[in-house]
Amino acid sequence: MKLKHFGTDGIRGEFGGxxxxxxxxxxxxxxxxGLAKCHLNVETPTILIGRDTRESGVKLFExxxxxxxxxxxxxxxxxxxxxxxxxxxxxxxxAALACSLTASHNPSKDNxxxxxxxxxxxxxxxxxxxxxxxxxxxxxxxxxxxGLDFSHKENDxxxxxASVVSSFADNLLAGSRIALDCANGALSxxxxxxxxxxxxxxxxxxxxxxxxxxxxxxxxxxPESLKALYQKGEFDxxxxxxxxxDRMIAFDEHGNKLxxxxxxxxLALAAKASGELVGDTLVTTVxxxxxxxxxxxxxxxxxxxxxxxxxxxxxxxxxxGFNLGGEESGHLIIGSFSITGDGLFAALKLASVxxxxxxxxxxxxxxxxxxxxxxxxxxxxxPPLESCSSIQNEIxxxxxxxxxxxxxxxxxxxxxxxxxxxxxASDRQKAEALAERLVExxxxxxxxx
Length: 449
Description:
Layout: E1 11-14, H1 22-39, E2 46-51, H2 56-70, E3 74-80, H3 83-93, E4 97-101, E5 110-117, H4 125-140, E6 153-154, H5 158-166, E7 177-181, H6 190-197, E8 201-205, H7 223-230, E9 237-241, E10 248-251, H8 260-273, E11 281-285, H9 291-298, E12 302-306, H10 310-320, E13 324-326, E14 332-334, H11 343-355, H12 360-364, E15 372-378, H13 389-402, E16 406-412, E17 418-425, H14 428-445
Parallel strand pairs: 2-3, 2-4, 3-6, 7-8, 7-9, 11-12
Antiparallel strand pairs: 1-5, 4-5, 9-10, 13-14, 15-17, 16-17
């Protein structure tokens, strides 16, 4: 389903550009109220708004709130709050909708909008399309007055923080030494406070946001920041979050960054051992390394794959009742607590598994990545891949040869004139040979640069 304004994870782009600006936020507020009135049957919808630490979030909040109020809705300001906290607050507050103003792990010049239903889940495909259409209709009209006065209520995310802490045993982390990188983002105050409440001895970097330093050399995209902290002392494990706190990257006791697949494997096997893994199934995306499937198969856990984006993981989890899913990028959804990616809760869940078992490096050894070969080809145009006969024929042959011993991905870049190829196989030489076959097939169908 093609959307004009919404991408993989909401609306995201450089603030002040054509994708994300105050006008878009204002009309998104209007569109959200219309959606709530029409589909949720709420005459005066309450919409929670939280933001990460970007300076532009203040302007986006004001514009979004004005749009909400202009259509008869009520805006509630949560202030600086992690995306999973905003989702959780929506679930416990009775609000119709919630919106997180964030560009996640992107640099501070970017910003965006992520919407949630009052249940704390991301919009369904149908509702997202409806919101996209409503926003587009408003943006297509002549500029309307958005300078009106508006009022809003104030709230905070204390209920979220309390819910996280109460989910774990008192002093769970007593005696453990933990390194944290908060990305100068929305978890800069909450994460250290929660870890200390649970008894941990912590060292923190990336917890001094100034409006422009979010994700700047720190956080989930910059493992070097936490590794530098490890040079100053010993830790049992470490966690790096992204700017809005919905992703988590784990580090073992040696300061080694764990693949997202390894974290998923640890959590899945622990849940299966305790009888808590619904359907003995883990949900992930097409981007996860096939070595995850192999590790899970050896331990009696099925793997289901969906398109990229934690919203697709959540949708399948809700549709089929599964309670664990994640992406290699660090999004982890633990259904017993929330149905959206929550970096803080996932970090604590992983810590609880480690503290009741072996060292993190030993637990991570269950997962062995398959060799991976990727290619990025410059293309003059992007005809539908389904119409490229040579590519399709080669894909069928390769998939048949790989069977359950590997996989391939082929797609156009969403932002560049490139075709991206990825092949995984249990043997690197085989993966390289298959990738070259795909390149040759692409050359038969496309004009390559």
